[in-house]
Amino acid sequence: MNRREFLKVSCSGLMTLFLSGCGLNMLGGDTSGTGFAAANNAAEKESGKMKIAVITGSPHKAGTSALLADKFIEGAEAKGHEVFRFNAAFKNIHACTGCNACEMDGPCIFKDDIERELMPQLLAADLIVLVTPLYYYDMSAQLKTVIDRMHGRLRRFDGKKSILMATAWNSSGWTFDALVDHYQSLVEFMHWQDMGMVLGYGCGTRRMIEATEFPEQAKRLGMSI
Ligand SMILES: Cc1cc2nc3c(=O)[nH]c(=O)nc-3n(C[C@H](O)[C@H](O)[C@H](O)COP(=O)(O)O)c2cc1C
Questions:
Q1: Stated pTM of the model
Q2: Cβ of residue 202 lying under 6 Å from some atom of ligand 1
Q3: What number does CATH give the domain 42-224?
Q4: Which of 132, 221, 126, 217 is nearest to 182 (CA)?
Q5: 87 Cβ below 6 A of ligand 1
Q6: 87 C-alpha to center of ligand 1: Å?
Q7: Which listed residue, 61, 107, 144, 172, has the most CB atoms within 10 A of its CB?
Q8: Per-domain residue ranges of the chain
Q9: 177-207 tens-digit pLDDT
């Protein structure tokens, strides 16, 4: 499928979703889709508290990007937000095979941790936080696997807020260019609202990152949303 066809399918999926959403809302039976998201948004506006899904992509439990996630969560929880964390590298997850059984708006054929554990939290989240080590100038495969699986409920993520946090060994100015480009394309295509980024240049090890201000930046970002 080329990009034009992909967009066409996505848009027709949106129309189907919109029409079915109207029907479900009229019946008052939509508890997992757009109606639920709208109810969430209203609740968020009223209370100022958000549901946050943090997805980490590193296989290092106590690594550099995990520290950014820890600090962000510390800040967000201090402000009363509700955080769900999914450490993709330690979960049973499958890559999207493009079978399209989901028709971009339905259950996945894989009944794994993404489908059972993460997906309900992602659908309910107001804010999605992507956390990754830089792997060959992009996100790790573990995080990308989760993002590809959003294909299964594609337009149900519309309108969510998002954040990117990443760490890298390199400290050159261009280090995160490709990752940031990728993230910004995602934000546009997914109809997300970017709430900020923490890009940890020169953070190759735990000792290196602990000597920087990036963990504090992550905490401040968590407190600011
Ligand atoms: C497979 C692999 C690919 C990597 N690619 C890059 C890279 O392209 N640029 C870079 O600056 N660092 C690269 N690194 C270094 C990691 O991004 C860096 O050590 C990071 O702090 C690891 O984060 P973590 O502790 O959260 O796993 C790579 C490391 C690995 C294991």
A1: 0.86
A2: no
A3: 3.40.50.360
A4: 132
A5: no
A6: 17
A7: 144
A8: 42-224
A9: 999 999 999 999 999 999 999 999 999 999 9
